[in-house]
């Protein structure tokens, strides 16, 4: 047994050497060289990503091929409503942009194939969902089967993807996120605002009442955000919303333990409005001097309270259809 | 009705209402007893039950020194040093007292009914706590809310014999005592706080919440310039006694001096001492000297303490945060680094639906209550505000911590609700009189609003006198400090009776809805014992599925105490408790490597797994299979976690990637990957499954049509499969007695020729 193994090893390695030897003075080497430099030019022009279609896909991946290739199967056209595709696309391009900084750009290329122009390829690889990234090793590699990037495990972010590509192609791609000027400006401004508020607070530190409203606003805001499932969004990273389809409202996610970003914000606003009604009934109404005005205020806030509560229950019934209680709406 | 009669009636009514609340709280937790029987639920309770039995049978010292060689085979587990003994000691104490008075109550029934009984006490402590914040009518509401709120019921139904069952009572009661201590400044209440803190430490790991919230409260008060001798006395008593006591629990040990979770409490303790010392110095020197002293003092203390802290943490004396605690702050941490924590369903984040499901209308009354606390803002209200903000954050991160949020939600919702009732039920004359009083003192009263009769004036003066006599000296001091804020704006009564009627009726209706909601949720979602399942048959009749107990009973009757049974860790406690056998891993997930070894055995091929099984003397392997019944919590669905945990320790032998099809799907039918098909778990789950329904077997969990030819087993043989195939037990074969490979031996027994084995040799 062991003998057989060694033999195979020797055979395969000698085959490898002989092929490598053959390649160096093979006339097809020139063709390959040309192909690589053409691809290189194309990629550099498009910030690292080669846009593919059915024909060019076959051409680029045809053998011989002394480079490896990562291909993003995606569907970015709006009619496909592929939210993760749109999310991942800039991240993918970020990694590809990191590739342009490499010294040796001949080992690995990044391609992108849209469903619109590459339907046959999608069928060929049995893709029934997008986005997907397949890594095609160069023909020097021992294992020729394309490998699939696992989004479910690693998420739609550039960094783990770059790590994966680097491990597969033995490259050293580094990601440099472009500085978002707006975000930076917001940060700087809010930093100044923070310092300013802090300074004002410090000045008025003796007057607790000065900061009391600020603190109550901060606390209530935190509570509203938390009880409407913000941390769930932080950890699970759901899409913000999906476009409505066939009259079904798009901001409510199906399933009891699932939610969209917009959905939890709507709930937070609902809670805040409901709490506002209670506070109006307790704090505002008793300060109104005119009886008629006061009565109107009571009826309006109580009416709004009942309406919003019914609405909340109704949304909850969408999530949990078996829930038996209703208030206003049936 | 005169004031005296009212107060007499109130004196009788309050205890009656509280007793009724306790009865409601207890009886709404009995659904599972009525539907099934008096049985211990779920997983962890089985361990607590088993240790309680041990404690009752062998006494306290034997329990304290118990080395359990029947779990974590072959490592064993030092039970006395790795449990929070509070709940066991409580039950054993109740058991012994009852037996002393010759009430022969079985220990199982005490364990089953412990959590409901304590829920009555929890409701009572919510009453006490809220009474300190507002008044006794708000207290009664809070007690009623907490008595039936599903967020608390979820972990305290009859049979759910778990730490949380008594810990929530201790949590609320400790907080009540702490507030009482801060209000009165008495060392006695500080001591009581420390004692109940000790009880809490002995009962639940969630005591860390108290350890951090109370210092945070003290620290905030200092920042707000509310340092007082009351705070100094109460906190110092609480911290000194509480910490010393908590260190007596072996599982906690020296953690209070060594881990970062406890450092905040220590830091605040030091701060208060310094602050108190500064107060002392201030009385002895001139203001100018004092200022210089203060500045140098602060600088020196900061530098010294920072240096010491850095040195200590660098030398490793003070440990960094533990993983479970750390995952609360950096929510991505657990997912990447500790799959064993991320795999537990109660460690998942909370969607908004869960909040509404568990608290219904309380969830939006709660912020209103917090707002009212801000309006009052005495020392105790600061505490409730801090508690609200932090508990809602934690509840958002982990479903399980809903439990710590629920009490504060009930308390502050009760404050809001009772303020609403006050506003709309209060007598007009009373409000006018107080307005008059307030107006006179601020000289900003508008004469038009005051249409009071002399009678109401008299009434008003009386009540104001009472108010001032009731006001505690410290609150007067506190309000004098923020004098400008305490100037109350004018208040008027609700003039029209129809507005009053509408609001009151509507609020009452909401209460009814809340009660219905709570009963619905408790009955439908939180009363399942999860070891006995109930479904509906085709004709709507109830079908009881008792496969778990069937299997454990088989093990109990057919194997000995020293039989080693391997299963995934979820079932360890149940097997030890019900089947009385030796387990390899269980729900006390202290040894990740050992769990990963079991994961590896489940995820690898028979040959590899057999080595692991032999090394660990495994006699039987148990799997849960829901494919026949459609029970989705089975082992194939948990399999990915086994693989992930196994890969964490044995990255060369277990690879998660190889269990996914090239399309990245997790398949069990004919598309399943070779790694999947060869894994022990797959084989054990689907062994002979295809013979059901004449080769057309369908896995109802994953809705997959299984291939006609099912997997074969050679190192295991089927020992027992329960009625609905939910539990399958396999016996590990001994080595072949003529030295053959087990695969060949099986093939030979099945009458097949030894195919290629000869050639290979």
From TrEMBL, chain A:
Pfam families: OST3_OST6 (PF04756). Its main location: endoplasmic reticulum. One of its GO terms (cellular component) is oligosaccharyltransferase complex. Gene3D superfamilies: Glutaredoxin. Keywords: Endoplasmic reticulum, Membrane, Signal, Transmembrane, Transmembrane helix. It is found in: Endoplasmic reticulum membrane. PANTHER family: DOLICHYL-DIPHOSPHOOLIGOSACCHARIDE--PROTEIN GLYCOSYLTRANSFERASE-RELATED, GH11935P. Belongs to the OST3/OST6 family. This is Uncharacterized protein.
Automatic annotation (TrEMBL), chain B:
Residues 564-614 form the STT3/PglB/AglB core domain. It catalyses: a di-trans,poly-cis-dolichyl diphosphooligosaccharide + L-asparaginyl-[protein] = N(4)-(oligosaccharide-(1->4)-N-acetyl-beta-D-glucosaminyl-(1->4)-N-acetyl-beta-D-glucosaminyl)-L-asparaginyl-[protein] + a di-trans,poly-cis-dolichyl diphosphate + H(+). It is found in: Endoplasmic reticulum membrane. It holds the Pfam family STT3. GO terms for biological process: post-translational protein modification; protein N-linked glycosylation via asparagine. Its main location: endoplasmic reticulum. Pathway: Protein modification; protein glycosylation. It is an enzyme of class 2 (transferase). Belongs to the STT3 family. Catalytic subunit of the oligosaccharyl transferase (OST) complex that catalyzes the initial transfer of a defined glycan (Glc(3)Man(9)GlcNAc(2) in eukaryotes) from the lipid carrier dolichol-pyrophosphate to an asparagine residue within an Asn-X-Ser/Thr consensus motif in nascent polypeptide chains, the first step in protein N-glycosylation. N-glycosylation occurs cotranslationally and the complex associates with the Sec61 complex at the channel-forming translocon complex that mediates protein translocation across the endoplasmic reticulum (ER). This is Dolichyl-diphosphooligosaccharide--protein glycosyltransferase subunit STT3. It comes from Lobosporangium transversale.
